[in-house]
């Protein structure tokens, strides 16, 4: 049983036989991708305050030292991003700061916001005004918190990390698998196109890796909402010296992800943390958000490869490199999808995951996001150019 899953109301049946089958998967069992995608983004680290203290993470600052970006700072980052041809504002930051962060709460209140989610909503609106589509990963969220921001995001995400109880998540306030799974399930209930993933090398074993991937699959089968699964190796830094997974481990776990997940879910590896070149043949078809102008604030020691390097990786793999939006095409309404779209639309009509027909015509993108995609301004044109696949020409 997954620790805390029932406590958070998540009912999952992970079949032992499916775990065994996945444990037997090797890179030879999966196919290389037809194309390799990436998104151009800017990273907006809204606050470094965080209620958790994951031992692998250098991102968070303790109370008294944590930062909070002003909306002017958010606007400035987004403006630079739009100017550099990005389509995505990636809002990822500390999990809902608890009451130890008195000064963060006081500042939010002085600016007229009740919570970090209220503030995130305003920040997403700024991103949209500047011509970027928000993708927010604020960590664990209740359904009410998700509802506060869902309609101003093109897609959202949270890493499951692992279904295992690991020492890296120890301490009085800690990430719990049950709560992560509930966040992923909440997104499904609210029809939010969603990114999740596993963090590899934080103390989980092979069986737990298989179980984590199958848990994601099971939630996706229920809601059809997962767009991509990130297979992220833990990276060494000042707080984490317990090592990073070997190439052999990454190859095997990436192949397991490809084998565990249905075709419509992309398998992503971050090219700044993982040896992407050596992993493509294990079923990777996405390189995630890559920023031409900002750091990866979670892993600032690992800089983004330039576009030319991504092209080299794709060339080596014999797959074309294609820029994508932060929301995958299968979640767009049919009139916004391109003529060449041949995937499994997430509108209930494809039946790839056996969704019931009464769910047909589900709207994944909100009227706000649809308006941004259709707008007759420079940003709208940039989004549509990426959709048509002509952004790299
Ligand atoms: O730059 C990063 N982008 C991260 N991203 C962004 C991701 O690369 C893109 O934003 C998505 O592919 C959407 O385009 C995440 C997104 C999530 O929803 C969940 C986790 C991550 C993790 C990272 C990360 O560690 N670094
Ligand atoms: C956004 C995501 O960043 C990941 N994250 C946090 N710290 C590290 C690290 N040292 N190495 C790799 N990934 C990390 C977590 O998986 C988090 O969910
Ligand atoms: C900066 S880490 C990413 C967001 C969130 N704190 C989480 O761990 O899920
Ligand atoms: S990984 Fe996310 S939740 Fe964990 S300490 Fe870092 S910011 Fe907080």
UniProtKB/TrEMBL annotation:
Positions of [4Fe-4S] cluster binding: 50, 54, 57
Keyword 4Fe-4S: yes
EC number: 4.3.1.32
EC class name: lyase
Domain annotation Radical SAM core: ranges: 36-272
Catalyses which reaction(s): 5-amino-5-(4-hydroxybenzyl)-6-(D-ribitylimino)-5,6-dihydrouracil + S-adenosyl-L-methionine = 7,8-didemethyl-8-hydroxy-5-deazariboflavin + 5'-deoxyadenosine + L-methionine + NH4(+) + H(+)
Name of the protein in question: 7,8-didemethyl-8-hydroxy-5-deazariboflavin synthase
One of the Pfam families matching this protein, by short name: Radical_SAM
Species lineage: Archaea, Methanobacteriati, Methanobacteriota, Stenosarchaea group, Halobacteria
Disordered, as annotated region: 342-363
Biased composition, class Low complexity, residue ranges: 342-354
Keywords, alphabetical: 4Fe-4S, Iron, Iron-sulfur, Lyase, Metal-binding, S-adenosyl-L-methionine
This protein's pathway: Cofactor biosynthesis; coenzyme F0 biosynthesis
One MF annotation (Gene Ontology) recorded for this entry: iron ion binding
Signal peptide range: none
Function: Catalyzes the radical-mediated synthesis of 7,8-didemethyl-8-hydroxy-5-deazariboflavin (FO) from 5-amino-5-(4-hydroxybenzyl)-6-(D-ribitylimino)-5,6-dihydrouracil.
Keyword Cell membrane: no
InterPro entries: Aldolase_TIM (IPR013785), CofG_family (IPR019939), Elp3/MiaA/NifB-like_rSAM (IPR006638), F420 (IPR034405), rSAM (IPR007197), rSAM_sf (IPR058240)
Cross-referenced SUPFAM superfamilies: Radical SAM enzymes
Cofactor field: [4Fe-4S] cluster
Family: Belongs to the radical SAM superfamily. CofG family.
Cofactor binding remark: Binds 1 [4Fe-4S] cluster. The cluster is coordinated with 3 cysteines and an exchangeable S-adenosyl-L-methionine.
């Amino acid at each position: 049983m997954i620790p805390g899953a029932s406590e958070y109301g998540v009912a999952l049946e992970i079949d032992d036989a499916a775990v065994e089958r996945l444990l037997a998967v090797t890179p030879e069992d999966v196919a290389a991708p037809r194309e390799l995608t990436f998104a151009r983004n800017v990273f907006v680290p809204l606050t470094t305050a965080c209620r958790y203290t994951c031992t692998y993470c250098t991102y968070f600052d303790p109370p008294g030292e944590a930062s909070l970006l002003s909306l002017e700072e958010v606007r400035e980052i987004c403006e630079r991003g739009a100017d550099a041809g990005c389509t995505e504002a990636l809002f990822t930051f500390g999990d809902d700061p608890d009451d130890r962060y008195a000064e963060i709460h006081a500042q939010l209140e002085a600016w007229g916001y009740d919570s970090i989610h209220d503030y995130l909503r305003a920040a997403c609106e700024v991103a949209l005004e500047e011509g970027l589509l928000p993708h927010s990963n604020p960590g664990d969220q209740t359904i009410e918190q998700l509802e506060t921001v869902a309609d101003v995001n093109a897609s959202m995400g949270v890493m499951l990390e692992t279904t295992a109880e690991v020492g890296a998540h120890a301490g009085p306030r800690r990430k719990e698998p049950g709560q992560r799974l509930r966040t992923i399930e909440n997104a499904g209930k609210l029809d939010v196109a969603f990114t999740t993933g596993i963090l590899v090398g934080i103390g989980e074993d092979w069986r737990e890796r298989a179980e984590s991937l199958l848990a994601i699959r099971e939630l996706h089968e229920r809601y059809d909402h997962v767009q991509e699964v990130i297979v992220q190796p833990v990276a060494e830094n000042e707080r984490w010296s317990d090592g990073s997974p070997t190439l052999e481990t990454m190859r095997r776990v990436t192949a397991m992800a490809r084998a565990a997940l249905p075709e419509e879910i992309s398998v992503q590896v971050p090219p700044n943390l993982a040896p992407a070149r050596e992993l493509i043949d294990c079923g990777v078809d996405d390189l995630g958000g890559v920023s031409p102008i900002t750091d990866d604030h979670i892993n600032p020691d690992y800089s983004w490869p330039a576009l030319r390097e991504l092209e080299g990786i794709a060339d080596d793999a014999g797959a074309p490199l294609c820029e994508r939006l932060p929301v995958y095409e299968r979640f767009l309404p049919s009139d916004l999808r391109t003529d060449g779209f041949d995937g499994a639309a997430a509108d209930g009509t494809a039946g790839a995951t056996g969704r019931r027909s009464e769910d047909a015509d589900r709207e994944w993108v909100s009227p706000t996001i649809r308006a941004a995609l259709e707008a007759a301004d420079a940003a709208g044109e940039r989004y549509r150019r990426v959709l048509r696949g002509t952004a790299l020409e």
